[in-house]
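Hi R.,

Here's the chain you asked about this morning:
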Amino acid sequence: MEEVILPRQLVNQILHQAQTSPEVEVCGLIAARDGRPARAIPIANVSPQPQRLFAMDPARHIAAQRRMREQGETLYGIYHSHPHSPAEPSVTDLREAGYPEALYIIVSLNIRGVLEMRGFRLRDETAVPVHLEI
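And here is the predicted structure, written out as tokens:
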């Protein structure tokens, strides 16, 4: 199984974002420097059903990608939360995965007292688990 090391600060930022909006799916990008995950970039969820789906605001998504390029960063991953379901890719997540090279991180708020964060590579509508080391 592939292993990915995530900086504690990045993990804390993603978890905090999910915890502060527990009724909607939060989402964002993970930028990398020198091939290593470096920072989370929250992007507004503009889905008409944000409690069960995520759709990144297109203008903010494009602007974030542009800023990453300008700063010498690359796209490392995409993250979102599942307020009421496990940290597993949904059928929609698999179908709409548009960056096969990216790490996909899902945070579940569905577990009492403990947040669950899992990583996947999503390719050809299949999910390959990735071991996240923090």
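One quick note: The longest strand covers residues 74-82.

Cheers,
M.
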